[in-house]
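Subgroup meeting minutes
Present: P.N., E.W., G.H.
Scribe: E.W.

1. P.N. recapped why we're keeping a running log of single-chain structure predictions: easier to compare across weeks, and new members can see raw inputs and outputs side by side.
2. G.H. added today's entry (166 aa).
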Amino acid sequence: MDSTEKIYCCECGEELQGAMYHIGGEDYICEDCRENYYTHCDHCDALVPNEEITDVDNNRRFVCRECADYYYTCSHCGQLFSHYYIAADTYYITLCTNCYEDHYFTCEDCGEVYRQDEAEYIGGQAGRRQGYHRSRQGSHLRKRRWISFTGRHGDRDASCDSRLPR
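Output recorded in log:
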């Protein structure tokens, strides 16, 4: 760029004097256009158009489309989350902490994740963290427990091989 060459904002066409932002190639934008139409990606720090930004972790972070691939999609709510907000991540289902706590549980015997409406509660314990589910292979009851946020699922019981319906 020649020192006498004038530079114009590629968004509004105004001549750039003072603060200007490089957005790739030979394109620059002014301060007003940056504030109104662009956001920094919290993952890669690139300056990208607002329409290419998506929220992650319940609006705690904002990332570009390319970086969104590095995040988990909750199978229940469909939102993107970093690993800090994932309570269950199995071959069959990935759940954020809110959806897991509100709608799911993990069987202590088999380690599989189930919807709470699949649980059977004994002795009026509905709504508490004490419950059971029935295996599809038999009528035996399985104790219910909540998965820890460290991902510990307990020992697998081959006799309880139910799968969460999609």
